[in-house]
Design brief:
This protein folds into 3 domains: 1-90, Archaeosine Trna-guanine Transglycosylase, Chain: A, domain 4 (Roll), CATH 2.30.130.110; 130-274; 279-511. Helices cover 30% and strands 16% of the residues. The strands form 5 sheets. A 7-stranded parallel β-sheet has the order 17-18-16-15-19-20-21, with helices on both faces. The chain has a 4-stranded antiparallel β-sheet with strand order 1-2-3-6, with no helix packed on it. Helix 1 (141-155) packs across helix 5 (254-273), helix 2 crosses helix 11 and helix 6 packs parallel to helix 10 (382-390). The protein has 526 residues and is of the alpha/beta class. The structure holds calcium ion.
Length: 526
């Protein structure tokens, strides 16, 4: 069927905005007249801004009802408003912020939604049943990978209830200033990742022997709930941490190391294989949301739909983390206002201040965030990007804050402070204990993780069409007018329950698209 050419469409986020986004695929040519009567003075690409009124030099350019910049010259109505015409505003200072001032009415709880998950001894719930092999140091990565290939080929077929075997490879562990104060970040990140709910408490470690990050430092006694429980029950004769040390004299030759790893893996596989999915309430979801490869549609379609879904999850009693410090920094006043208590607001300010100082040490600021692709996609600067990013957090009160690498211990909406880097954010959300990941993209990225299902949401129908076997949800339907934010939010919520239950696989799972774990190490290397 031949569709008639769609009528010209722009999208405004707020009644007081003086720019709007061109929605049509391929953009619109000069001379296009919108139903409002506005005529384009020049060609405007899709996702880019058009001036709705004459913008005087020095005047505020408003989107999301905030100044995203100041006009560097007079910009007539109907012009393309791109980043070269805008002076970026300074970052909001961190004093005199509104503290826990917004008191939204509590929406009714959302009861009755469940999924099929793996209940863990510590009370957490996994959405997948994975044997993860923790490593103390990068030196052991090659040997561990060799062993994992053999485990997958020779052992895994015997344990059909186990979904996968994953080596937790990383670049840390030695050659680092391990006693520097900030080294706590990568160390606790690694520790908490190995305790992620999707690994069932079955912690096994491969160590080299001479590295700085010794196994007892990575996982001190008492840090693994399951081992402690088995010990208490008398079920483990040797409650020590399960470590294969490659430099151990017992290993003569490479194959001895590989076989030692396989022998240990078999014990864990047996226990993991005995686990069964059971029906659990949706409140057991721990969802990490982030965006990557953003465009101007991120803040119109995908992120608002994720925000609506975030509100559903919070109403269902689940935990939702949003992150990406440089992408929320410009909205700090909104966030402190939405905090449940002044203490939570203070913790938000603490994380922003820490990150401001971290960036200053590198002689940059939050404006280092935006990419060439963001700008091609219509995002002029970090202020505009941030406003579109924050909407992923929906409208629920912010009830907690995590420093990078900390483990989440509460329900509700939480700010997990992380860099915006896709891989570092995902790695830190894994450490916080996420059992489901939601990722929005406009430019398109095939991002995926081996440790947790990643549901990818496209901001534009054009991307969803081209990447039909990579994108799980098309929020571009919102810009096309064929679905509402609420409808896509519900679609995402239901898909989450299916994916969490193992009834559906995400495209990234189907193709086994696994990005690296990337640790955030703000401390020096040696
Ligand atoms: Ca990101």
């Amino acid at each position: 069927m031949q569709n008639a050419a769609p009528s010209p469409l722009y999208i405004t986020m707020h009644a007081s905005d003086n720019v709007a986004i061109v929605a049509n695929d391929g953009g619109l040519p000069a001379g296009t007249v919108f139903p409002s009567g506005l005529a384009l003075r020049e060609q405007v690409p899709q996702g880019h801004k058009v001036a709705l009124v004459d913008l005087p030099k020095g005047g505020a350019v408003r989107r999301y009802n905030v100044p995203i910049g100041y006009a560097l010259k007079d910009i007539p109505a109907g012009s393309w408003v791109h980043e070269r015409l805008l002076q970026m505003p300074d970052a909001r200072g961190l004093d005199n912020l509104p503290m826990a001032t917004v008191k939204p009415a509590t929406p009714p709880p959302l009861d009755g939604y469940t999924f099929e998950g793996f209940r863990n001894p510590d009370g957490s719930v996994g959405t997948r049943n994975i044997l993860a092999i923790t490593q103390t140091v990068q030196c052991v990565a090659g040997v561990t990978d060799f062993a994992v290939q053999r485990i997958k080929a020779e052992l895994l077929p015997k344990y059909p209830n186990v979904d996968d075997v994953v080596a937790l490879e990383h670049s840390y562990g030695c050659g680092v200033a391990i006693d520097a104060p900030d080294a706590v970040v990568p160390i606790r990140t690694l520790r908490n990742i190995s305790l992620n709910p999707n690994f069932g408490g079955e912690v096994m470690v491969v160590s080299l022997g001479c590295e700085k990050l010794q196994p007892e430092r990575l996982l001190p006694p008492g840090s693994i709930p399951l081992v402690d429980q088995r010990e208490a029950a008398g079920a483990v004769s040797d409650p020590k941490l399960d470590v294969v040390c490659l430099q151990d004299d017992a290993h003569v030759g490479f194959m001895a190391m590989v076989e030692a790893i396989m022998l240990q893996a078999q014990q864990h596989l047996q226990r993991l294989n005995a686990r069964q999915r059971e029906t659990v309430p949706a409140s057991e979801l721990v969802v990490g949301v982030q965006c990557g490869g953003s465009d101007a549609f991120s803040g119109i379609t995908a992120n608002p739909a994720v925000g609506f879904c975030t509100d559903l999850l919070v109403r269902a009693g689940a935990a939702v983390m949003f992150s990406e410090t440089t992408e929320v920094r410009d909205g700090i006043a909104q966030l402190t206002a939405r905090a449940t208590t002044p203490e939570v607001a203070q913790a938000l300010i603490r994380e922003m201040a820490w990150y401001d100082a971290y960036l200053r040490r590198g002689s940059v600021d939050r404006s280092a965030n935006t990419t060439p692709g963001n700008k091609q996609g219509g995002l002029s600067n970090i202020v505009e990007k941030a406003m579109g990013s924050i909407v992923k957090s929906g409208s629920a009160p912010i009830s907690g804050v995590l420093a990078p690498g900390e483990k989440l211990k509460q329900k509700g909406l939480v700010y997990a402070a992380t860099p915006a880097s896709d891989f570092i954010c995902g790695t830190l959300q894994l450490a916080a204990g996420m059992n489901l990941h939601v990722f929005t993209t406009g430019r398109g990225t095939p991002y995926g993780l081996a440790q947790v299902p990643v549901i990818k949401v496209a901001t534009r129908s054009d991307l969803a069409r081209r990447w039909h076997d990579l994108m799980d949800v098309n929020a571009g339907a919102i810009a096309d007018g064929s679905a509402t934010v609420e409808e896509v939010g519900w679609e995402l919520f239901r898909l989450m329950l299916d994916v969490a239950s193992g009834r559906k696989k995400t495209w990234a799972e189907q193709w086994k698209l696994h990005n690296a774990l990337v640790l955030f190490n703000p401390a020096p290397v040696t």
